[in-house]
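Ticket #415: bound-state structure for FE3-S4 cluster.
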Amino acid sequence: MELTSEQQAILDGAKGEYLAKCVRWLVQWGDVMGAERLIKCDNTHALLPVPNLMARNASKDTMDLYMADLKEACQHRTAEGCYCTVHAAFITTEDVDVPENDPEQVAMHNELADLAADAGFIPTFTCAPYLVGNVPVKGEVCAWTESSAVVYANTILGARTTRHGTESAIAASLLGLVPEFGVLLDENRKGTVHIEVSADLTHSTDWGALGYFAGKIAGLGIPVFNGCRRPSQDEAKQLCAALATSGGVTLAHIAGVTPEAPTLEAAFHDDVPEESIPFDNDTLQAQYDALRNITGDEIDACVLGCPHASIREIAEFAHLLNGKKVADGVDLWIDTAKGTKGNADAMGYTRTIEEAGGRILTDTCPTNMRIPYKRIITHGFKQAHYSRGMIECESIIAKTEACVRSAIAGRWLGD
Ligand code: F3S
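RESOLUTION: The complex was predicted; output attached.
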């Protein structure tokens, strides 16, 4: 990779050992991916949280080294002009009575959050930074962690980010640089799979079903959706999360919606494939059926807000819960960012939800926290998919209204 003299100097240690390491990370990654240069990056969403149960079997030495590295990163300022936010955590600073929210880890989390804020990171602790202020504009070069947010930034906002991990996003935040490869380049943003949508997408979870289907088909490719209407923000959130759950999608095009894809032809750079894959009502139903194989009807958790809920979703949850009571033995969690919960508190939604026995969980989600449930119901395809592996529970995917009805009944009532 060709470096400028300034980049080379940092690599040679002109700004200290840690920043030299950051350049080395980006150069080594870029070399592997075929990048020819490092380019300016204006916006990052970095993963800085305390690893907690994510590193279940890690030794104390490994954890200490990891924490020492994160703390050292926070001894530096984020690059000038770079808008840097922080990804969701594995614990919450809310006072929740589950043993997975270990006080020692909460203290470490708070220490790290303060250090990150001093370094210039905005400690949003969310998987949906675009709901709490980090909204890059079309063409803005970003370095984002969180696969669902990466797809959202590329597909809905028209920003440009490859999929980042902890080290690369920290390096990008401190240097304001990223290796130029993948979807940062025009030629790599051309659609690869044409999906013709005829299904009736009436609920945001239906859009999750579309993404779950397309992710399996596209793998690492770029699906192009044609024939569907414009999704709302919450529908787009579900679509993008599911695309990155069943597949490794970084970017998709919705013809007529994605900023650079006003037409099907534009999405394929004027090279539309002859074949298309249909997504009809039967295919839609099959996605639900795939995440409903359960051995009983009782549920012990209802998880709403994956990715983290918008204020509009919280208003809807509050409306559905108003005057009702969640069944004994069922935890109803609404996952969101602290900033959004602040709005919900001010608007009275939190009170309505808590009076019904629900709880708003900030910074994280039950799957990230590894709360060991037996059977959960959720409206998010991502949560339904990952909870099966990460907490080894059974999961039921359902639309919001059905989730809430089941949480009140304490068992899966069907659609
Ligand atoms: Fe966010 Fe947890 Fe879903 S971190 S994307 S709510 S799995």
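RESOLUTION NOTES: Residues 281 and 319 are 29 Å apart (CA to CA).
TICKET STATUS: resolved
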